[in-house]
């Protein structure tokens, strides 16, 4: 458990993931999670407050420049996963899954349902972008539901009231429906708030088929894949690919709680799978 600070109000990075999972628990009325108690989840509410206040258009451009050149060295998929695992070494081993365990539970659940091999692989690597935390990024620049910057905020984004503190909310050019974008310009031309999705997408881009890349890049884009927001920026092709993002989401949210995966037993299968798509080391 790290020390909670103003910059990092979550006790664990995964508190955000757990919150999202509970928000979409089956049967939970939309209303219920809308008011979803800043009170019951003070750390999470505070997390969204700093996220919404600080994810500006300029911030996103700055982080893209900083990271998307992939100049942080070469690592294999396993090396990146081991590195990410150091993030939670200090958490309670009895109650918390390690990062690798969450990745394997996701990929194993996909595998059990007979989905394509590249989708299993997407499950295995989808959160490796969280290594951003280990490069010193605050929680609000690593996790959180993503949303477009440079145009009006959808009211389908959780805690929309916190955007009032974002400097972009005072820039009229950024607050029209389309903002700096053209109608149906395609998500590839839209800047989303910065986080672990875009980073792992750029890392994996040369190697995986398109639907897998959509899963990586948009798995935290809940306003769009869960609420249907921002269709006016999407192409028909984006919408088609979002069927895959939606197919992926339950494995991310609800594969927790199953038995802890046995890495040693599973490793040969994943060694083969990784080698099928990736060279030994890739740029991060
Ligand atoms: Fe994620
Ligand atoms: Fe995840």
- Give the end-to-end Cα distance, rounded to a whole number of Å: 26 Å
| Relative strand content | under 5%
Question: Radius of gyration, Cα only, in angstroms?
Answer: 18 Å
Structural class: mainly alpha
Cofactors, ions and other ligands in the entry:
fe (ii) ion
Looking at the structure, what is the overall shape?
A: globular
Number of helices: 12
Helix content: 40-55%
Q: Mean of the pLDDT scores?
A: 92
Uncertain residue ranges:
none
The largest sheet, given as strand count, sense and whether it forms a barrel, is: 2 strands, antiparallel
The number of distinct β-strands equals 2
The strands making up the biggest β-sheet line up spatially as 1-2
Order of helix and strand elements from N to C terminus? HHHHEHHHHHHHHE
Q: Any idea how many domains?
A: 1
Could you outline the blueprint of secondary structure elements for this entry?
Blueprint lengths: L13 H10 L6 H5 L7 H13 L2 H11 L6 E2 L1 H9 L13 H14 L4 H9 L70 H9 L5 H9 L3 H4 L10 H19 L8 H15 L4 E2 L1
Antiparallel strand pairs: 1-2
Helix pairs in contact: 6-7, 6-11, 7-9, 8-9, 9-11
This protein binds fe (ii) ion (2 copies).
Describe it for me?
The protein has 284 residues and is an all-alpha fold. It has one domain (14-283). 45% of the residues lie in helices and 1% in strands. The protein is built from twelve helices and two strands, in the order H-H-H-H-E-H-H-H-H-H-H-H-H-E. It has helices at 14-23, 30-34, 42-54, 57-67, 77-85, 99-112, 117-125, 196-204, 210-218, 222-225, 236-254, 263-277, and strands at residues 74-75, 282-283. It has a two-stranded antiparallel sheet with strand order 1-2. The protein is globular.
